[in-house]
Design a protein that fits this description.
With 811 residues, this protein is mostly helical. It has 27 helices and 2 strands. A two-stranded antiparallel ribbon has the order 1-2. It holds the Pfam family Sec15_C.
Amino acid sequence: MERGKMAELESLETAAEHERILREIESTDTACIGPTLRSVYDGEEHGRFMEKLEARIRNHDREIEKMCNFHYQGFVDSITELLKVRGEAQKLKNQVTDTNRKLQNEGKELIIAMEELKQCRLQQRNISATVDKLTLCLPVLEMYSKLREQMKSKRHYPALKTLEHLEHTYLPQVSHYRFCKIMVDNIPKLREEIKEVSMSDLKDFLESIRKHSDKIGETAMKQAQQQRNLDNIVSQHPRISGGKKSKKEVCASSDLEVKTTSPMSEQDSGILDVEDEDEDEEVPGAQDLVDFSPVYRCLHIYSVLGARETFENYYRKQRRKQARLVLQPPSNMHETLDGYRKYFNQIVGFFVVEDHILHTTQGLVNRAYIDELWEMALSKTIAALRTHSSYCSDPSLVLDLKNLIVLFADTLQGYGFPVNQLFDMLLEIQDQYSETLLKKWTGVFRNILDSDNYSPIPVTNEEMYKKIVGQFPFQDAELEKQPFPKKFPFSEFVPKVYNQIKEFIYACLKFSEDLHLSSTEVDDMIRKSTNLLLTRTLSNCLQNVIKRKNVGLTELVQIIINTTHLEKSCKFLEEFITNITNVLPETVHTTKLYGTTTFKDARHAAEEEIYTNLNQKIDQFLQLADYDWMAMEPGSKASDYLVDLIGFLRSTFAVFTHLPGKVAQTACMSACKHLSTSLMQLLLEAEVRQLTLGALQQFNLDVEECEQFARSGPVPGFQGDTLQLAFIDLRQLLDLFIQWDWSTYLADYGQPTCKYLRVNPTTALVLLEKMRDTSRKNNVFAQFRKNERDKQKLIDTVAKQLRSLINSHHS
């Protein structure tokens, strides 16, 4: 029973499910019925569902049939009406067809006319459009034609402007045309072509200024020289007016009025200021020698193209390279002044161009760039000048170089370049100039001294006398009173040397001009250089003359006299320097001249040389001495060589009359002392191993001759027997041996009042030994005689006592 209930419930559920599926089928679109049918097949009651579906279809068919049966009469009536309308419609169609045929036939001509009108209107519209398009295109073509024409005539900057207008104004209006696209594609190529051509022009410009820098610099330096001349005239004639005169006129007439504004200022650069140049008189400026338009055009072109920085960098790089080439001096520059001038002209030309570019362009070069170039140029120029000027040995060339450097510095200073280092370097060259002057004056002094006759200058008339006095500051009242002919005490080299010293001072002064030095600095420079001339150059020349082998006593005497007068003239040289520098010698830090010392040293050297020469002459005479040291008896007179020697000394000292008294006295005393010493050495020399009393007596005659010469007063000024004291050692020694006064000598030895105070026991012993050896050799058999034996004993005793004195003295 329960099974029956369950089956009944299942059948009810199945029936409800089928009903739901049928409703879904009825209400669902055919495209979406698949899931519903799938649910049917998924169930187990497929057959029952099909039965229900068949039942439902039959129900719907019965409903459709009922509805059709209900409307069938209306349908039949509608069909009948429709058949009637078909007939009328056929008639209407036939009428419309006839009407259309008639209309078509009637409208053919109109259609043809309308078609012709259409074509005319189309052509008219096309023509109008073409005119409009051509109106837009013609300016483009005209601009392009103008561009090509400008390119062809090398008017690149206007061509670039035309290109800008073409690209931004005209081409955008007709950009859809093919020829415009071709133009647009060509625009970068045209720009590049303009850049290349303008760069080529710039390279030509750079080559042009490289070639013309020499001429530009020469022109600038000429104008600087003219300005200096103008300034000198203004300083001499300070009458100032506002009117302009040509520099040539100003130089020709110092009375003309001049304008005070300097054309060499940075803002009013002389070489590049066309306004201040006279119409026909002025030398051409840089812009007259070089066409600057290429650099301006190229700068504008690169600026427009947005490549200004590239252009600036290229220009500066190329100019730096040119600067290095300009600053490289030729290897033979030092040989001629033209070499230096060309070198300076190129440097000045380079910086004049750069200064012109600085003031005529905006930013192509700036002050920092030019200052950097100038620093490099200054260092390289100074280094080159130091090197090449060191090779120069001609003072005239050094002086010309200095003037050229000053002009070079003044020229560039006029353009605003600092040139203090150049003037500092000129002070270095001044030292070199002094050295070259000293070398030159060495030759001058040497020629003067070599050509001098070392004889007093004779004058036969007043004119000659005044000429010498005019050349050399000499005043002597006694000489002026003497009648003609008369003689100056000095020789010709005195006025010549004095005048050459003045010429040297003038040469030093020339170098100091235009160096912007104070009077004190000029005075100090001249005095230092003159001191070098006196203490080194002139002193060495005098020393060389004095030390020459062939110089005679007469020449030495004249040199002493000459240097005495030159020494007195030093105060006049001081006054001469003071007059040309306007610096008083009393000014603090003023350098004093060392001329007095120089001439004193030369005089002392000459005096020493006189003493040396006299001694050498005495030695030469003494070499002729030929004593017979073994002679038993003396001769009747002094030796011939000594008589000749005394005669030579007398004649020599007679020449010393013009020498200062002390010099003559010193020479005479030196000669007598040297003669005495030489005679003593001759007596005691080791080669003379034995001598006799007779030989000693002959030697005594020669010494007496010397003493007689000393007593005769060969040179005035000696007091009493002063000159004889030169022979006192010999005299006492000879007296001791000739008189055989040993008892007195031995008894009084060491006392201030000793008769033989100047006899040294060692000397006496040496001479005694020579006499004892002679006595032993010649009196071998005489030893048996009592007198000889006593004498020998006495000699031995004296020798023993002398040795005792020597030993006690040493202890």
